[in-house]
Amino acid sequence: MLTIIGCGNLNRSDDAVGAIIAQRLQQYLAEHPHPYVQVYDCGTAGMEVMFQARGCKKLIIIDASSTGSEPGAMFKVPGKELETLPEPSYNLHDFRWDNALAAGRKIFKDDFPKEVTVYLIEAENLGLGLELSPAIKSSADLLFEELSAIIRQNSGVRSQESA
How many CA atoms are closer than 13 Å to the CA of 111, on its beta-carbon side? Predict the structure, then answer.
């Protein structure tokens, strides 16, 4: 089972890129169903990321980044490099997807994906707004194409295995 999770705030311009790509992939799956692929838009809910990832074999997370790199730059990072346990807090808003990776692995053990890949797209504008910047939209289109190809490959391998 492949699970793809998009993260981001739809009201903060380029921060929405992960959620927008997830929504596009959900539409793609509605038109081209694949029983071994799930796609979720988890918004900014790290706890939801942890629970949706449980039980899958491969996990892909998509989000915006703000590292000072060129806007629209895309990074593909092994999830293990980004896992971090959350700081003690009473606020669930402080529990992000990077915390979800570390906590999920600790809580769910073998029922948590071992293969995690994170795609990050460098944001240009994280202010209030409903539109992606042009460079980010272009990168989002490229990543959508790459992920829809991964979906096609994943479903092809699975259906041959069960035949």
Answer: 7
